[in-house]
Each structure stands twice: as C-alpha cells, then as structure tokens.
Specification:
The protein has 383 residues and is mainly alpha-helical. It is built from 18 helices and no strands.
Amino acid sequence: MSLSYFWVFILLLTAGAPVIFALLIGPGVSLILDGQEVFFSALLNRLYSGMNSFPLMAVPFFILAGELMNQGGITQSIVRFSQTLIGHYRGGLAQVNILSSVLFAGLSGSAVADTSALGKMLIPAMEQNGYSRRFAAAITAASSVIGPIIPPSGIMILYAFIMNVSVAGMFLAGIVPGILICAGLMIMTNRIAKKRNYPVANAKATWHERGSALKGSFLPLMTPVILLGGIVLGVFTPTEAAAVAAGYALIITLFVTNTLKLSKLPTILVNSAVQSGTILLLVGSAVTFAWIITVSGMADTLASEITGITDNVLLLLFIINLFLFAIGMFLDAGPAILILGPVLAPIFISLGIDPLHFAVIMCVNLTVGLATPPMGLVLFVAA
C-alpha cells in the first residue's frame, strides 16, 4: 500500500475528525485512491484480529472496576483518609488533593475519572477555604496525570498489548515515576501555599482519627495491592486480575460499604461498555495502522532519519521526550501510544534502550500532555 493512507490520516486529523474515525476511514479511502479495493478483506481481518485478543479483556474489566468505585462513593473515604494524614500542613487541601489522586490512581487508573471525581468534591471546598479557583482547578488537573502512571493503568495495558511486553513489568515500572511526580507536586504546592498564605485544611488528626479514616478506606485501598501482588506472585494473569478487581469493587460498594445502589448498575454497565467498545475499536484500527506503516516501508525510513540525527543515544532520548510531550498536548495518550508505539519503540530498543524504560518514557510524557494546553483533556474536565 502506498503512503496515501498516511496523508489521508493526517488530512482527517487536521479537519478535526476523531482519531478513531481517522484510523478507521483512512485505510479504506487510501485503497480506493490506489485502486486496491481487493485488499478490503485483508484490512477487515486485521481490524478484527487486533480486537480478538484475550489480554485485551483486561481493559473493559478495569474500566468497570473504576466506574464501580467512582459511582460507589469511594472518593469520600479516600479524601477523608488523606486529610487525616496531611491536612494539617500549609496548603493542606491542595496537598490532600494530590495524595487523594495517588490513592485514587490505584483504583481507576484514569486521569479523567480522577479529575471528575475529586474535582467535584475538592475544587469547591478549596474555593471556600480561600484558594483561587484557577489554582484549585490547576492542582486537580496536574495531580490527575498520576492516575494513568501508577498501576493499574489502562494505557500501560494498551502499550503492553501493542508492543508485546510484560503487563506486570509495566505496572511495576510505573510506581516510581508516579511517586516522583507526586513528590514534585507536593513540594511545589508547599512553596506556593506559603507564598500565598493558603490555610491549613484542619487541625492535626489524632492516631485514633487516622485509624478510623483508614478503616473506612482500607478495603478500597487494598485493590492495587491485591492486583499487583497477585500478578507478581503468579496467582492470576493481568486479565484475570482485572476481572478480580471488578468483582472486588462490586462486592465492596454493594455489600460492604453499601454506597452503591442496584439502580445505578445499568448506567455503570452501559458507560463501561461504551468506553470499552471505543478503546477496542481504537486498538483494532491501530493494529491495522501499524501493519500499513510496516509494509509501506515508513518505519524503516523513519528509523534511518531518527538515527541519522546524532549518534548520542541520550540526546535522542531527550529529543523524543520533547516530541512525545508535544504530541501529548494535542492527542490523547491512548491513541498516541497505539499510533506511535509500533513506530518509535523498535527504533530505540535497537539502540539498546530497555523496552520497559522506553515504555515508561512514552507513557509519562504523553500523560503529562493531558494537563498541558492547548488541548489537554483534563483541563477541560477541571474547568
């Protein structure tokens, strides 16, 4: 297939078409332009085979688990526990916002879900306590990018599938970057809070109050521990872990905390199905895209161009960091990983970069772009 697909894809994106439509429509249009309609069946087979994968079943289960936790009112218990730990520091509510994002990340793995759930509760509360709305929204959006980095992470599952790397390895590799981002945000928030004289959230909690708050949030907070422990110890596969997470979330919210009503289940299931269907279509079309890039020779051309810039691997990594960060400003992390992963990862792996190292570089840079103007998705949610 000629490079016409690439130009059709770029044209559709420039025209404002959603990424999934550009990926789905682009191949068909390019085949018509090239007079190669006979390959339609091959494209459809690639699309189907891209979605027909057992590991990908983890995606809808993790989405369902996040929806159950979110709709089940788990957010309040997490925020309360965070307040008892760090609410007595200067700028306490902002610090609570950040810590809550870290804890919430282990439940949903979604930046948008984090921003939506915590923003509804903490942005108005921060305003009432003397914080500017701009700062409250900014810290909510910035801390939410921790969600897709700390396991379980939807985008890491997608990367692991598309690049055939270990899901458990991806999850473990995301822990340290997530903690470092959290620490950096907390240090900066502390400096800003002192400069602007933002108040403390509450008096220092007693150990009894902390224990009580931990008791109320202990079971939800055990979710990432059970998942990671089970995967690393070989108790279950990542796909089975996702199913366990969904079942665990349902039991907790429906029978233990009694915060989820049965009447909400149909809405939760529909929302999860819509999100899952969109992602799976995106994955299938991205597999087709990767195949076209390979057979057209674009991957080899791009590899020679990138390696021709410099022989210094560290400089190439610096350049690709900037490139991915810029891409993340305009393109959501999931589609960007599915499109760019098969193109860029083999190049840097051939240069001696560890596959998990490059995976984290890609995921972190693209995720930070979610909170970066002009098109950062969580910015619109926080606003």
